[in-house]
Amino acid sequence: MKILITGATGIIGKKLIDFIVPFGHSISVLIKEEDRAKFQDQRVVCVVGDLLNKNSLDKATVDMDVVVHMAGITHTNITKLYFSINTEGTKNLLESCKKNNTKRFIYLSSRTASSDGGGYAYSKLLAEQAVKNFFNEWVVLRPAEVYGAGDKEAIARLVRIIRKARFIPIVGDGSYTLCPVYIDDVIHAIIKVIEEPKANKKTYVIGGPNEYSLEEIIDIISKQLNIFKIRVHIPIFMTQRLWIFANSF
């Protein structure tokens, strides 16, 4: 089977390659020109392209049986970038897949995908809708908060804040729930739906076995680190400033 993976330079993408290569599939990865030199993996075919370059996507999707689309932007101060890359970029890829008769499209979305969760969440929801409208064979995966995926993920950032900040900022009342999931479980889910016929036209939330409020997760991490700090509740409208604060650690 010929599989194209986007977002292969990320932590999840690299680990997916490690897991999927032994299955004997022919793997190609879509990477940007600036990432070509630092992405040295002889097990896959590197195809230079960009979600906003339709010609490059047309070439990348030739003869592909399955596309696993994980590329996107998760954090930016420029809201319109969420929609140009996550939504319009996905539509561009879908159009190329349709031209080249790709059989199945697997989209890695987010558990947060919604119309009222901010720019990122809404851009992912719109991309999901495009996937469902374009393809006969599609699967949407919505991972919850992934841990074990490097220091840029939400849980890892929270650990750093607890370790280094003078106080722990919490958006709103901290009662909203998270469902942390280990990176390997996300990888296994992706591999499972690549060939599973029963997964067609389904949306799956990939989460851990338990849901926790943010306050509970902070309790667990604080106890493990034996670090206990003051918690400061931040109004929701200050979320952008909080993100800048989190990025400083």
List the helices and strands and how they pair.
Blueprint: E1 2-6, H1 11-20, E2 26-31, E3 45-48, H2 54-60, E4 66-69, H3 79-99, E5 104-108, H4 119-134, E6 138-143, E7 146-147, H5 154-164, E8 168-171, E9 177-178, E10 181-182, H6 183-195, E11 202-206, E12 212-213, H7 214-225, E13 231-234, H8 239-246
Parallel strand pairs: 1-2, 1-4, 2-3, 4-5, 5-6, 6-11, 7-10, 8-13
Antiparallel strand pairs: 9-12
Helix pairs in contact: 1-6, 2-3, 3-4, 5-7
Task: Please give a structural write-up.
The protein is of the alpha/beta class. It has a single domain, classed as NAD(P)-binding Rossmann-like Domain (Rossmann fold), CATH 3.40.50. Helix content is 39%, strand content 20%. It contains eight helices and 13 strands. It has helices spanning 11-20, 54-60, 79-99, 119-134, 154-164, 183-195, 214-225, 239-246; strands at residues 2-6, 26-31, 45-48, 66-69, 104-108, 138-143, 146-147, 168-171, 177-178, 181-182, 202-206, 212-213, 231-234. The strands form four sheets. The protein has a seven-stranded parallel β-sheet with strand order 3-2-1-4-5-6-11, with helices on both faces. Helix 4 links the parallel strand 5 and strand 6 (138-143). Helix 1 (11-20) crosses helix 6 (183-195) and helix 5 (154-164) packs across helix 7 (214-225). The longest helix has 21 residues, at 79-99. It starts with a strand and ends with a helix. The model has no long low-confidence stretch (mean pLDDT 90).
